[in-house]
Amino acid sequence: MRSRELIDAKKALIYSLTLTLMGVTCVSTRAQDPLGETPRRSILNSEAVQYLYPEQVTVHAGKPSAIALHFRIRQNLHINSHTPREQYLIPTVFSIPESSGVRLAGATYPAGADFTLPVDPSEKLSVYTGEFTIDARIVATPGDHLVEAKLHYQACDQNACMPPKTITVPIDVVGK
């Protein structure tokens, strides 16, 4: 029984030390940045990519129809293009759920712009910045479909990348 109490006491001590170290880290970070608004924290606070439009489209049911989807990337950020130069980089991908009554027949992504990081000027990345448009071809069944399409991307600034993210791209598709 004595050894169980010892183990519990050690766990409590480790837990206490961990909390203390976390508190010290928070205080020292706060002291270095009194407003608490480090660049890393600010890129995590809001969406890196905003879906602009269209909110509603009317298409011929059963036939491929072209729609242009417009997006804006937050200032001072970039996202990898649909065809990044390195296999380990996460591409930007647009998708439509199969159960939505609308099928994605294809998508044409803009060409990425060359981008270099200060850390390694010899490596060029293929990225999107500012506003960009994805030209999609969709096929809808007859009726009104509230489609929750998705855009999957990874946003970065000059120093760090955020975890990959998927945003909802709501489109009211009317198939006539």
How would you describe what is shown here?
This protein is of the alpha+beta class. It has two helices and twelve strands, in the order H-H-E-E-E-E-E-E-E-E-E-E-E-E. The strands form three sheets. It has a four-stranded antiparallel sheet with strand order 1-3-9-6, with no helix packed on it. A four-stranded mixed sheet has the order 2-12-10-5, with no helix packed on it. Strands 7-8-4-11 form a four-stranded antiparallel sheet, with no helix packed on it. The chain has two domains: about 1-35; about 45-175, Sandwich (Immunoglobulin-like).
Search tags:
single chain; 176 residues; alpha+beta; Immunoglobulin-like; 2 domains; 4-stranded antiparallel sheet; 4-stranded mixed sheet; 2 helices; elongated
Q: Helix/strand/pairing class, anyone?
A: alpha+beta
Straight-line distance between termini: 76 Å
Contiguous helical run count: 2
Shape: elongated
Question: Which stretches are low in confidence, meaning pLDDT under 50 for 5 or more residues running?
Answer: 6-44
SSE topology string: HHEEEEEEEEEEEE
CATH architectural label of the largest domain: Sandwich
Helix content: 10-25%
Mean of residue pLDDT values: 80
Number of beta strands:
12
Strand order of the largest sheet: 1-3-9-6
Please summarize the sheet with the most strands: 4 strands, antiparallel
